[in-house]
């Protein structure tokens, strides 16, 4: 005997194992990490200002700092110039 619940559950498990669902779930993990970083590292839960405009500005600056740090992480490190080994341009 097969109940309606068993059929629905089997269809659900089949959809969860599909390649498309797994691809979407990997994206979800990346998106959920950003609010976590903003809360832990940038302390956006405790905004020390009052007012909607100031709060928005404070939050946008925190998000901007996060984005800039992420950008700088992917840029190549600058090479130091020395008198003995000048970089030819």
Structure in words:
With 89 residues, the protein is mostly helical. It folds into 2 domains: 1-32, no CATH class; 42-74. 65% of the residues lie in helices and 0% in strands. It has 3 helices and no strands. The longest helix has 23 residues, at 52-74. The chain is flat, with a radius of gyration of 24 Å. The N and C termini lie far apart (79 Å). The model has no long low-confidence stretch (mean pLDDT 85).
Q: Mean of residue pLDDT?
A: 85
- The helix-strand sequence is HHH
Query: What is the CA–CA distance across the termini?
Result: 79 Å
Number of helices: 3
The count of domains is: 2
Radius of gyration based on Cα positions:
24 Å
Quick description:
This protein has 89 residues and is an all-alpha fold. The protein is built from 3 helices and no strands.
């Amino acid at each position: 005997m097969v109940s309606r619940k068993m059929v629905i559950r089997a269809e659900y498990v089949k959809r969860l194992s599909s390649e498309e669902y797994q691809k979407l779930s990997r994206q979800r993990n990346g998106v959920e990490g950003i609010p976590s970083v903003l809360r832990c590292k940038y302390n956006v839960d405790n905004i020390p200002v009052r007012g909607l405009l100031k709060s928005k500005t404070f939050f946008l600056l925190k998000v901007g700092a996060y984005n800039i740090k992420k950008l700088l992480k992917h840029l190549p490190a600058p090479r130091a110039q020395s008198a003995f080994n000048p970089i030819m341009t």
